[in-house]
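Homework help board

Subject: predicted structure for assignment chain

Our instructor gave us this sequence and asked us to write out the predicted structure in token form, then describe one feature. I got the tokens but I'm not sure how to describe them. Can anyone check?
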Amino acid sequence: MDRVAVTFNAGSSSLKVGVFSLKDGRALRLGGGIATLGDQPRFTLRFSGGDEAVDLPSSTEIDARLVLQVVDCIVRRGFDPVVAGHRIVHGGQVFDGPVLLEPDVVLRMEHLTHLAPVHLPPALAIVRAVRSAYPDIPQTASFDTAFHSSQSSLAARLAIPRELHDAGVRRYGFHGLSYKYVAGELRKHDPDLAAGRIICAHLGSDASLCGMVDGVSIDTSMGFSPLGGVPMSTRPGSLDPGAVVHLLRNNFHDADSLEDFLHHRCGLLGVSGKSGDVRVLLEDFNPASREALDLFCFRIAGEIGRLAVSLGGVDAVVFTAGVGEHQSEIRSGVAHHLGWLGLSLSEPANKMNATVISARESEIVALVIPTNEEQVIAEEAIAVISRHRL
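My token output:
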């Protein structure tokens, strides 16, 4: 049987699964799939080599039954799962790298649920489901926040009393697995450029930016929670604290309803009144849809300017994730605001989603590099079990 690492990347309403063959300590992707949860949930698991898609009935939430169906399908296909790696959104101030999920580690993770109440519960449910059905499979955790643990205390601090900062109310940053992958790919593409000052824009349904020097995180747009930073599909990005207090006092009567509003009814959806999907808005001629996209690009460009201050300049801007990789109009919209910084795009290269999309005369290199969080999870999982000789 082919020994494989299985990766679980749980979002608030989706579950991505990857299957990676273990070859000489490396992870070679064999297949995977994504479960989209909601009114008509469905999971399709596809393998490379021409295998047909396997549809698995799922539920409206990530539960043990769905996870067991996924693993059982992988086993029936003749694979031997030797490790299950999980993306965990929040590691708090406790975890600054991948770890083996021993019982005491899981308990410490459960104590962090208050920091990410939307994301941590489904991820922990998957961990428990795998452990219950397959207790002999070691499990590992890869933390989105760990990549940003290199940031200075100045970058991490909020202007609040020290006792609150010490209790964990601080800037963390997210999408770290994506940034780690992109930093590695950029190093393969252009080692000299990768050693410089890079701003990476992870633009998908969720969106954030990270400023790096030599592949090390210096500053990022998201702060205490995945709600902060630039506007997203259904999240507002950074809000004036006074606006939050106003909403709680006048429009919502408890924190749970306000939290649901901030996660699911703001961002591009809130501004456009139509959709949080960039592709839908690009095809819509309603002024509100256009305004939502303009605001998205404007705030991203503004964040690039702020991160340039943190880095002391910028040598390259990298676009990644679904919108960043595929929507040339958004990249053009961002670049439109950054001519003063010396950034200009080659429109033919940009429309082709080429790797290098900056114009020859541009003082800043602009690139498109596809991300792969599951690859990082698999590689970290293999490294962890190798370190523990499992």
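Reply (TA_rk): Your tokens look well-formed. For the description, you could write something like this. The two ends are 18 Å apart (CA to CA). That's the kind of observation they're looking for.
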